[in-house]
Design brief:
single chain; alpha/beta; eight-stranded parallel barrel; binds 3-methyl-2-oxobutanoic acid
Length: 267
């Protein structure tokens, strides 16, 4: 990858070439520089900042102003990577709220794409955002913002009906104009099949290594939360000497398709 700014067109071209996309969550300027130096393509200012920075039990309490603040910290320092900002809980419950949230996250936060959790029910919102120039990343499978409805952090799409629902939602999001899709905690076979079927890049987390790219929560893959990281993640710092080496090892393994390995592929 050369030094040019990564856009959704760059990611689409990478997908077509079969070049895997390395993505990590990122919440501040110092880590932005380290992640870019390691060759991370996409920085996701995830609402996981509620868990890892704020000590919240879920992502539900995260507010738009928190997301704008951290997006600005990341986007000010980013030279090359695409910066995606999560739209927090209920900030896209109506089309008007979604437009207002995108205005803050992109206008004040400097993000170049926004991410929202959910499927076909968001088709009109995705259409509206993209029509007005806000690129959208969908998020299907385990939806952390719906944790109080789901009742636990469990794999989704394990039976035929669940898998068919995720596939149908993915196609609707793509059709509505989404530029990218995150699939969280779905069986590897389903994620691989969707990555092949969809024209847009599919980024997996806990979804096996058949996706077009991978994302992890930064604090999990640096081993900063001992005993609290999900089993599909890997502590890359455990076998390397520094943060920089851990990040480079992650990028290398994602690009080579060796992360996640069989031990990190739960279904
Ligand atoms: O908020 C986040 O970090 C995310 C990833 C888990 C994909 O949405």
């Amino acid at each position: 990858m050369n030094g040019e700014r990564i856009t959704s067109a760059t990611l689409a071209a990478m997908e077509r070439r079969g070049e895997r996309i390395a993505c990590l969550t990122c919440y501040d300027a110092a880590f932005t520089r380290l992640l870019e130096a390691a060759g991370v393509d996409v920085l996701l200012v995830g609402d996981s900042l509620g868990n890892v920075l704020q000590g919240q039990p879920t992502t539900v309490p995260v507010k738009l102003e928190h997301m704008v603040y951290h997006s600005a910290c990341v986007s000010r320092a980013a030279d090359r990577a695409l910066v995606i900002a999560d739209m927090p809980f209920l900030s896209y419950a109506t089309e008007e709220r979604a437009l207002a949230a995108a205005e803050r996250l992109m206008g004040d936060g400097g993000a170049t794409m926004v991410k929202l959790e959910g499927g076909a029910e968001l088709a009109d919102t995705v259409r509206r955002l993209t029509r007005f120039g806000a690129p959208v990343c969908g998020h299907l499978g385990l939806l952390p913002q719906s944790i109080h409805q789901l009742g636990g952090y469990r794999y989704q799409g394990k039976d035929d009906a669940g898998a068919a629902r995720i596939r149908a939602d993915a196609l609707v999001l793509q059709d509505a104009g989404a530029s990218m899709l995150v699939l969280e905690c779905v069986p590897a076979a389903l994620a691989e099949a969707l990555s092949k079927e969809l024209a847009i890049p599919v980024i997996g987390i806990g979804a096996g290594n058949g996706c077009d790219g991978q994302v992890l929560v930064l604090h999990d893959m640096l081993g900063l939360l001992p005993g609290r990281s999900p089993s599909f993640s890997r502590d890359f710092a455990a076998s390397t000497g520094s943060v920089a080496e851990a990040l480079s090892a992650y990028v290398e393994e994602v690009k080579a398709g060796t992360f996640p390995g069989p031990g990190e592929t739960l279904f």
